[in-house]
Amino acid sequence: MDTPGEMEDNVSVASGDSTAVYTPTEMTEQDIASRDNTSSAYDSCGSAPTPGRTYIIYHKDSGSMLSLEDEHLMLRFSPRSGKHWNCVQNLGWFGFTEKDSRNFLGRDGNFGFRAKANAHLPWEWFIVTRHENKGYHLQSPHWLSLRWVGIGKNGHTLIDVKSVDHAALWEFVEV
């Protein structure tokens, strides 16, 4: 353990009125190894979306792709078009625009989702969270809460679900 004199050499101090907060000035190899330990994570759930990159978004359970065809958002196994989604970020929120139409994925106002908006506003905001090594969940604001994106009973539409137990798992494959 560092002595107080050694600690001062290894940290930066941010002080307020009378409280000092000690933060490390550098990371050790052990810190980096634990943070970057993704040995088989890519193989099992793809990569996390990154703003400025383009993806095909797969529904993990069915293997179908999120697509926008003739202005209809749906899951399809072999979409003719509308399967490439650009990732953006605004105010910390993710957004996804269909590459050809440039329409944002977002809520439809009726507990479902659509891709018709041309701006990244609150109904087009998403949080992407990793679920173990199984894939990613998408969450979107619903008034004063966050809800998950799920799959409708027909297996092709996206719906708003209240529980993570009913949330769909997604895989983002960069193109």
Please give the count of helices: 3
In whole angstroms, the N-to-C terminal distance is 47 Å
From the 3D coordinates, which CATH architecture of the largest domain would you assign?
Answer: Trefoil
Q: Using DSSP, what is the number of strands? A: 14
**Adjacency order of strands in the biggest sheet:** 7-6-3-14
CATH class categorisation of the largest domain:
Mainly Beta
Helix content: 10-25%
- What overall form do the CA principal axes indicate? globular
Instruction: Give a quick account of the main beta sheet: strands, pairing sense, barrel closure.
Output: 4 strands, antiparallel
Strand content: 35-45%
Biased composition (Polar residues): 12-27
Region (Disordered): 1-46
Question: Explain this structure to me?
Answer:
Residues 1-46 are annotated as: Disordered. There is one protein chain. The protein is mainly beta. The protein has two domains: 4-35, no CATH class; 43-174, Trefoil (Acidic Fibroblast Growth Factor, subunit A) (Trefoil), CATH 2.80.10. Helix content is 11%, strand content 43%. The strands form five sheets. It has a four-stranded antiparallel beta sheet, with no helix packed on it. A four-stranded antiparallel beta sheet has the order 10-11-12-13, with no helix packed on it. The chain is globular and about 35 Å long.
